[in-house]
Amino acid sequence: MTLSDKLPPQSAHALDRERIRRAPKVLLHDHLDGGLRPETIIELAAAIGYENLPTTDPAALAVWFRDAADSGSLERYLETFAHTCAVMQTRAALSRIAAECAEDLAADGVVYAEVRYAPEQHLAGGLTLDEVVDAVNEGFRDGERRAAAAGHRIRIGTLLCAMRHADRSPEIARLAVAHRDRGVVGFDIAGGEIGNPASRHAEAFDYLRAEGARVTIHAGEAVGMDSIHEAVLRCGAHRIGHGVRITDDITIGADGQVTLGRLASYVRDMRIALEVCPTSNLQTGAAASYPEHPIDLLRRLGFRVCLNTDNRLVSGTTMTQEFQHLRDTFGYGTAELEEFTVNAAKAAFLPFDERTALINEVIRPGYARLRARELSRVPVDGTAAAPAA
Ligand SMILES: O=c1[nH]cnc2c1ncn2[C@@H]1O[C@H](CO)[C@@H](O)[C@H]1O
Ligand SMILES: [Zn+2]
């Protein structure tokens, strides 16, 4: 197979920011504790007497997070979460943060999201694991209602993370299964990848497999193929968080001939989705630059790639902004945004009929409308009559 054979036609129209924002999008990889509003952190910190924030100016705090996370190392990136987790230790704080997350995603045009967090990191104020999950779910239901009142349709499921370096994964796996019909759609492991192999959590993954639970695993971000191999073949991951280092198992000859190794073939053949987060990858050193980011290669090779934010505050991003970077770097347009969105909907941890409805009743019609507007050159708000082409 040569790569040039696999190039789809690029969209003829450049998508402007507002059209990207309005297009229906699906987000599968977004951390609740990485996406707080800076104003909310400052308010909550003041209320509980948390004095370690680097600044109490919202704009400066947003810049601080992005800069501190721009370290080239995943470990340094993760250090910034101490400040967000510090203010996420009560029922009210968790519910508020989840509700605001739903509102912010909806305002960015996200119609379905799976938002993840590690319940074990929210026990310092005396909450139980079950109370943490209930508080977050309550917040999301509230946020969905508020978004609907503002004219935005969004649905949110949650993924419970266990931390790779800790030893609570069996408990968190049981928690995910106990709440699976009440807002929780799957399980993940997050945190430092180096020195913390997924196989340490084999007990949790064996249990989840026996329960038929849905699993995604952060892998192939700071560690390469070995980590992806473990995640998929030993731990049974249905999706991979990041997974960009799968390119270590792909060779491209001087003649453009592409060869996939056994692992890369498995991931592509089995339609294991790669939850790709370009900006986060640049910050942690998983990719050197947008042009060098493997998302375009993987997409052209037919991997089930979807586009994600990872951490909206820490990476200073939104879904709209992630796609703008790809538009500017690779010339992507409506077709590619729709492709990522449908890929994400196919890989969502929703029942089959709900995934189908999401694609056929929300995503496809949304993009059809977008394309019709492009053709007639109607302004995005549809108010003024467009001049004839
Ligand atoms: O890109 C990432 N790779 C690995 N772990 C991450 C990433 N982003 C956030 N977290 C970790 O996941 C926890 C639960 O949400 C966060 O507290 C953070 O430590
Ligand atoms: Zn992540």
TrEMBL record:
<dbReference type="InterPro" id="IPR028893">
    <property type="entry name" value="A_deaminase"/>
</dbReference>
<dbReference type="InterPro" id="IPR032466">
    <property type="entry name" value="Metal_Hydrolase"/>
</dbReference>
<dbReference type="InterPro" id="IPR006330">
    <property type="entry name" value="Ado/ade_deaminase"/>
</dbReference>
<keyword id="KW-0862">Zinc</keyword>
<keyword id="KW-0378">Hydrolase</keyword>
<feature type="binding site">
    <location>
        <position position="29"/>
    </location>
    <ligand>
        <name>Zn(2+)</name>
    </ligand>
</feature>
<keyword id="KW-0546">Nucleotide metabolism</keyword>
<dbReference type="InterPro" id="IPR001365">
    <property type="entry name" value="A_deaminase_dom"/>
</dbReference>
<dbReference type="GO" id="GO:0006154">
    <property type="term" value="P:adenosine catabolic process"/>
</dbReference>
<feature type="binding site">
    <location>
        <position position="31"/>
    </location>
    <ligand>
        <name>Zn(2+)</name>
    </ligand>
</feature>
<dbReference type="GO" id="GO:0009117">
    <property type="term" value="P:nucleotide metabolic process"/>
</dbReference>
<feature type="binding site">
    <location>
        <position position="310"/>
    </location>
    <ligand>
        <name>Zn(2+)</name>
    </ligand>
</feature>
<feature type="domain" description="Adenosine deaminase">
    <location>
        <begin position="24"/>
        <end position="363"/>
    </location>
</feature>
<dbReference type="GO" id="GO:0043103">
    <property type="term" value="P:hypoxanthine salvage"/>
</dbReference>
<dbReference type="GO" id="GO:0046936">
    <property type="term" value="F:2'-deoxyadenosine deaminase activity"/>
</dbReference>
<feature type="binding site">
    <location>
        <position position="33"/>
    </location>
    <ligand>
        <name>substrate</name>
    </ligand>
</feature>
<feature type="binding site">
    <location>
        <position position="31"/>
    </location>
    <ligand>
        <name>substrate</name>
    </ligand>
</feature>
<dbReference type="GO" id="GO:0005829">
    <property type="term" value="C:cytosol"/>
</dbReference>
<feature type="site" description="Important for catalytic activity">
    <location>
        <position position="242"/>
    </location>
</feature>
<protein>
    <recommendedName>
        <fullName>Adenosine deaminase</fullName>
        <ecNumber>3.5.4.4</ecNumber>
    </recommendedName>
</protein>
<dbReference type="GO" id="GO:0004000">
    <property type="term" value="F:adenosine deaminase activity"/>
</dbReference>
<feature type="binding site">
    <location>
        <position position="218"/>
    </location>
    <ligand>
        <name>Zn(2+)</name>
    </ligand>
</feature>
<dbReference type="Pfam" id="PF00962">
    <property type="entry name" value="A_deaminase"/>
</dbReference>
<dbReference type="GO" id="GO:0008270">
    <property type="term" value="F:zinc ion binding"/>
</dbReference>
<comment type="function">
    <text>Catalyzes the hydrolytic deamination of adenosine and 2-deoxyadenosine.</text>
</comment>
<feature type="binding site">
    <location>
        <position position="191"/>
    </location>
    <ligand>
        <name>substrate</name>
    </ligand>
</feature>
<dbReference type="GO" id="GO:0009168">
    <property type="term" value="P:purine ribonucleoside monophosphate biosynthetic process"/>
</dbReference>
<feature type="active site" description="Proton donor">
    <location>
        <position position="221"/>
    </location>
</feature>
<dbReference type="GO" id="GO:0046103">
    <property type="term" value="P:inosine biosynthetic process"/>
</dbReference>
<keyword id="KW-0479">Metal-binding</keyword>
<comment type="similarity">
    <text>Belongs to the metallo-dependent hydrolases superfamily. Adenosine and AMP deaminases family. Adenosine deaminase subfamily.</text>
</comment>
